[in-house]
Specification:
mainly alpha, 12 helices, 0% strand
């Protein structure tokens, strides 16, 4: 849908009434795809990309699977480049590195790949076979990173370069005397001060845009509607109590994830790894944006939470795996 807008949209409204035309210039700051805000599209693309990468790289290596994974991944990467989301680009890089960490550190031996390992292999033979599998995956991930960077440079061009150069302006300590914009350099200190003024239970969820006027020092022409940092906004809106409840939920999720990973001989399965990669990208991007405030993004994020811990019949539990090996 985003590609169709780039190719054919010439005026406001493209199936949806409030979508502004985007000529591909990343400096315009308009939306992409079905989103009015281009960063919100990037959140959705990141979550999708993480799941695809997990299913592609964390499973047994097959040419057809790799081809499909590449065909799905590259259009997502290029779309984020066209959208102009700087946080989206950084988060995509982060989730690729997260996948690499999960592949090479957390669980370097895979149930599907170790079919090549024979019971009567010597230690040296087994080490050689495992080493070759890891080298193959290193080459694959390195190739994907090179392709991703090449696509970013080729597609982004000068508009993307201008967009990246504007990052420093977002964090300038002071704006002009009649400053009216909502840069992060002004919003973040104001949000932190708001959190300190209401430390226990915050100002209430949904009240941020009203309460921030007490601490945000600007002309008043524009009022920040969000903190552009979901962690700061959580602290300002819910205080210590809200932050503690969020932390409690994270601990419960990680506990369920650890329990689920014990059921599999090779650690976390591919679908769980991909879901975690998508959530990791959201965690990174939420430092600078508020994509989970959009309903579809929050729903997809919840789906990733479920995918990460749900039992899947296609994977053999550790006990049955052990029996098949013995």
């Amino acid at each position: 849908f985003g590609y169709a807008r780039l190719a054919f949209q010439t005026k406001t409204g493209f199936l949806l009434p409030h979508l502004q035309p985007n000529d591909g210039s990343a400096s315009r700051g308009v939306g992409f795809g079905q989103f009015i805000n281009y960063n919100h599209f990037a959140f959705l693309a990141e979550m999708t990309l993480g799941l695809v990468l997990g299913l592609t790289l964390r499973r047994p290596l097959k040419v057809a699977r790799l081809a499909v994974g590449l065909l799905v991944s590259l259009p997502l990467v290029i779309a984020v480049v066209y959208s102009g989301s700087r946080g989206g680009l950084a988060s995509m890089l982060g989730e690729v590195l997260f996948i690499a960490l999960m592949v090479f550190v957390a669980a370097p031996l895979f149930t599907g790949d170790d079919q090549q390992l024979k019971e009567n292999d010597s230690g040296r033979e087994r080490a050689g076979r495992i080493g070759s599998l890891l080298v193959t995956r290193i080459i694959l991930i390195a190739t994907f990173l090179v392709a991703m960077f090449a696509g970013i440079v080729w597609v982004g061009g000068d508009p993307l370069a201008a967009r990246l150069e504007s990052v420093s302006k977002e964090f300038e300590a002071k704006g002009p005397a009649n400053y009216s914009n909502t840069m992060r350099a002004q919003i973040w200190p104001a949000s932190w001060q708001l959190a300190k003024n209401h430390p226990l239970v915050g100002v209430g969820f949904g009240a941020y845009w009203i309460a921030i006027t007490n601490t945000h020092r600007a002309s008043g022409e524009f009022t920040p509607q969000e903190a552009h940092n979901d962690y700061l906004e959580l602290l300002a809106s819910g205080g210590v109590v809200g932050a503690a409840l969020a932390l409690w939920f994270i601990v419960l999720f990680l506990k369920a994830l650890v329990i689920r990973s014990r059921d599999f001989a090779a650690g976390l399965p591919a679908h769980a790894t991909g879901a975690l990669a998508g959530m990791f990208a959201v965690a990174l991007h939420s430092v600078t944006d508020f994509g989970l405030h959009v309903t579809i993004n929050s729903m997809v994020f919840v789906l990733l939470l479920v995918i990460a811990i749900i039992p899947v019949a296609d994977f053999e539990p550790r006990s049955r795996y052990a029996e098949s090996v013995s």
